[in-house]
């Protein structure tokens, strides 16, 4: 019987030794599962995102229109099947617990936003606010070999149980499967999630301070771009 010689890999200075990942995080038996988005996730994603990013939505549409923002987001997501492939849904003991959207180079499709629908739920001011929020959060320069974590949110009742960590691990896995070598995301400087990203290997590579446009669009002008080499 012939054996193939596999040379040992020695650690180099600065090299992070990663254990080989055999299965996609969230695909093995356990309380936490991760799957692709399905029709039944539309309402969950809409409500969870508006609640998880309530500071941005409140700034954009006003506190009294948050329920309208949920309905508008659900309507838009329901029509936007062409972007569902970006979403990964985390289930905790079978219940929808969190969601994440990741994007790769060339995936610039936009959600099916309808102004008339937005106006009916949010009024003209709320619709303008939401449009600005969309402009402020859109990332249009994802290079070849990069994976962009567009947004990640976990329902408040499931936070602190490792759901966010596993979603990020799944993002890394899916990105590697696509041949990517780098992950990146944007996060508000004061967001506690910065610690989670650091633990997952992300580092700050760019700092935006006091951007007037971002403050008007999102209520904060201070953001970090964080990046991770795979
Ligand atoms: C960030 C978030 C996705 C993490 O999900 P999670 O399942 O709670 O994460 P894990 O259990 O794997 O890890 C816990 C870490 O998440 C972060 N976290 C926990 N609650 C958080 C909250 N309310 N807001 C922001 N980050 C939070 C912290 O870094 C925490 O670590 P710490 O306790 O040492 O500070 C989730 O808290 C959330 O949806 N937050 C609101 C939306 C948001 O800020 N998304 C990130 C935008 S870039």
TrEMBL record:
GO terms for molecular function: acyltransferase activity, transferring groups other than amino-acyl groups. It comes from the Eukaryota. This is Uncharacterized protein LOC109470785. It comes from Branchiostoma belcheri. Keywords: Acyltransferase, Transferase. SUPFAM superfamilies: Acyl-CoA N-acyltransferases (Nat) (SSF55729). Residues 32-230 form the N-acetyltransferase domain. It holds the Pfam family Acetyltransf_1.
């Amino acid at each position: 019987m012939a054996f193939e010689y596999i040379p040992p890999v020695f650690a180099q200075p600065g090299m992070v030794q990663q254990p080989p990942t055999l299965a996609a995080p969230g695909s093995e038996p356990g309380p936490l599962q991760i799957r692709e988005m399905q029709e039944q996730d539309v309402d969950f994603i809409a409500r969870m995102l508006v609640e998880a990013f309530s500071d941005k939505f409140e700034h954009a549409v006003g506190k009294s229109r948050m329920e309208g923002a949920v309905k508008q987001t659900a309507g838009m997501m329901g029509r936007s099947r062409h972007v569902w492939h970006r979403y990964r849904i985390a289930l905790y003991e079978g219940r929808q617990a969190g969601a994440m959207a990741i994007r790769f180079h060339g995936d610039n499709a936009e959600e099916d936003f309808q102004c008339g629908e937005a106006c009916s739920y949010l009024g003209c001011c709320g619709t303008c606010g939401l449009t600005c929020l969309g402009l402020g959060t859109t990332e249009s320069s994802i290079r070849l070999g990069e994976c962009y974590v567009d947004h990640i949110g976990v329902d408040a009742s499931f936070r602190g149980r490792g759901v966010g960590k596993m979603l990020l691990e799944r993002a890394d896995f899916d990105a590697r499967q696509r041949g990517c070598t780098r992950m990146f995301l944007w996060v508000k400087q004061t967001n506690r999630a910065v610690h989670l990203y650091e633990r997952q290997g992300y580092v700050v590579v760019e700092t935006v301070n006091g951007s007037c446009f971002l403050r008007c669009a999102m209520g904060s002008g201070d953001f970090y771009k964080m990046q991770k080499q795979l």
